[in-house]
Amino acid sequence: MSRTCVVQFSDRGIQDPLLNLTISKHYEHCKRFNYKYFVSQSRRCVQRHVYWEKVVAISETLNAVMLECDNLVWIDTDAYWLGNEPLTPEFDTPFAAVRHRNPPHFNCGVLYCKVSSEVDRLVDLWWKSSCHNHHWQDQHAFNLLVESNQIACTEIDKKYNSTFGTADYISPNPVVAAWHGCGNRKAEMAAFIERHSR
Fold first, then answer.
1. What are phi and psi of 109, to 5 degrees?
2. How confident is the model at residue 141 (pLDDT cuts 50, 70, 90)?
């Protein structure tokens, strides 16, 4: 039985130039670690910014794997799991993420979640929050819920979301490498994946 599932979203599917770089690799890594792999390709919340599709995809996947998995990992399309280690940071709270300092916030581009009815309730709370005008959209909403103690999130090692463009958050031994809007993402991701596939 698979105990972890990986979730991504792109309404362009393999036509998405970033997802196209990683989808086959992520599929191979999930198969090797006996993880489930879901790629949501249909927009569910057209009335909101596309960033909120993350919350919908997490909610739908939680319900789909409630009896099969213990953990769910969300990975933005501009992030790449190298497959060198399992996606298993230690955390006892509903969520876990890498925390950045300036400004202080949890980076939800790679988000680790427990699979439980309680987490499903918290994701619903996240969805219902009213933070749609901030440029970080869903991430800002998530962090406001953490700050108000409505959601508990564990800070984990930066190797689980090693983010280029932010010198303090690049790990020398990344498990997940991420660009999160930085630089020429397609070219930089392609070069990185090529180097680490040899």
1. -65, -30
2. very high
